[in-house]
Amino acid sequence: MALRGVWQLQKLVVNFCDWGGSSKGIRAFMESHLPALKEKNPQLEVVTQLVRGQHPNLKGIYKNHNERVVCVRNLAPEDIMLQASRLRCSLGRKVVKLRTRHVTKRPSVQGTWTTELKISFSFSFSLPSFCLSRRLIITYA
Question: Options 3.90.1640.10, 3.40.30.10, 3.30.200.20, 3.40.50.2300; which CATH number does 2-89 get?
Answer without folding.
Answer: 3.40.30.10
